[in-house]
Amino acid sequence: MSKMLRVNELSYRYGTKQVLHRVSFAVEQGEFFGILGPNGSGKTTLLKLLSKELPLQEGAIALNDMPLVSFSPKQLARVVAVLPQSVEAAFGYTVKETVELGRYAHQRGLLPKWTEEDERAVQEALAKTGLLAKQQQPIDQLSGGERQRVYLARALAQEPKVLLLDEPTNHMDIAQQVRLLNELKQWTNEKRLTVVAIFHDLHLASLYCDRLLLLHEGHVAANGTPSELIEETTMEHVFHVAVRRQAHPVLPAPLLTFLPHVKHMSEGLASLTMTTTSEQLVVTTKTPFKVLSSAVVGAGVQWARYFVNRHVPKQYTSSDPEAEMKQYLRERSFDVQQTIGMMTAVHVEDASIVYEKDLEVSLCAIVTAGVGNAVDVTKAWQQNVSSSVGTINTMIFIDGMLTDAAFVQAVMTATEAKTKALSDEGVLDPVTNTFATGTSTDCIAIAASQTGREYAYAGSATALGKAIGRAVYEATINALRNYEKRKGERR
Ligand SMILES: Nc1ncnc2c1ncn2[C@@H]1O[C@H](COP(=O)(O)OP(=O)(O)OP(=O)(O)O)[C@@H](O)[C@H]1O
């Protein structure tokens, strides 16, 4: 298959200093290709060889299957545009005049004429870079980020097939970075523009690039998709920092988080306080706990200090319960970003609290249970299951450092224990008359201090799993009995 750009066994020396070692890769037309690597790994040198700013010493570069050496400067400028790392501001020129210079390669003859085509390309480039309103301004009166955009506009006005960018978003604020990369990405799709760009920001590279080349001391350390390449061991080897890979919340792109030398301190469960009123049950921890939950507020993975189980009337409805609950929390001065918020129609004073403490595990389970919406989940498909708020809310606080697997297993173990408690208490699904496995709107939060003892797993084979199983079972049984008692008193 023909490639837009093909680099083969490319090596380069400044004097006796070898800075690139037999670098090979290929880029297809329309690809957004990123070059990553630590300072001094050879990225700029590589880009300068691709633009012929540096002469070829060893190896080969082909553009559209033609050797780069065979291109005259003007021929090359019709195919390749470059945005260097830093450009000297050309004093006296306006923005538009600077961008017009990009049309040089397309002009012919000794006395070239400015054509409609030239004007259209310049205006399009100005529009793409958000500079239409500034076109008459002198370039030396612009900010660093704006000037960077002018040079990008000049490169785009060249209407190249390949765009070489050395840190294109350098000097730009985050909104400009995202805007520019969105535009470039669109051009790679619509105009089949090929972009080869040096990135320092791994996240931007991971989000926008189709493929990445990772350089390490002038060698290719890796070459692949962001998902293949943004990987903990490789990154730690190349960048010499401890990292952790995570999933992007919306896209199948990896995110890397650097692990700083800052220690998270916690007093564990000793710092836990609980207050209960008829309106709400609130658990507060002195330091944030890491939480995996299905709560109305704070669902997913969060760090939180406030855990609110709010009592709401049985007939509670809201078109947007999350927004309504956030408003409720704000009105009561909770820091919403650090709060896990659940709701229940059950009286929260009937919560059951069970502590498990031995040499291996220290945890606390808090359960509120109502079975107005009890459901046998295996038969739920037969019925119109309600989603009102008669529910079982389970919170588990663990003194320890849980892996992701342990968090997920803690949810499984707690759910199994809850289901067993319902069955032992004889709770039935009122429609099918079979044992209920839960209610239709149950909620769970697993909160861990993330200090002290490490727990890789939390299934029933482990001490943590055993403790969760016992505590959740006991707390659920007690909470169910409290609920039944109150119901009996009301009759
Ligand atoms: N003109 C030069 N003369 C001598 N050595 C040079 C020259 N330009 C760069 N180098 C050296 O070559 C190596 C690679 O430099 P290069 O600029 O390609 O790295 P880079 O990966 O782009 O770095 P950065 O992330 O800091 O921009 C570095 O050790 C640098 O000091």
UniProtKB/TrEMBL annotation:
Pfam families xref list: ABC_tran, CbiZ
Keywords for the protein's UniProt record, in alphabetical order: ATP-binding, Nucleotide-binding, Translocase, Transport
InterPro entries documented for this protein: AAA+_ATPase (IPR003593), ABC_transporter-like_ATP-bd (IPR003439), AdoCbi_amidolase (IPR002808), P-loop_NTPase (IPR027417)
Domain ABC transporter residues, every copy: 5-242
Example of a GO MF term: ATP hydrolysis activity
Domain of life (superkingdom): Bacteria
PANTHER family named among the record's database cross-references: HEMIN IMPORT ATP-BINDING PROTEIN HMUV
Full protein name: ABC transporter family protein
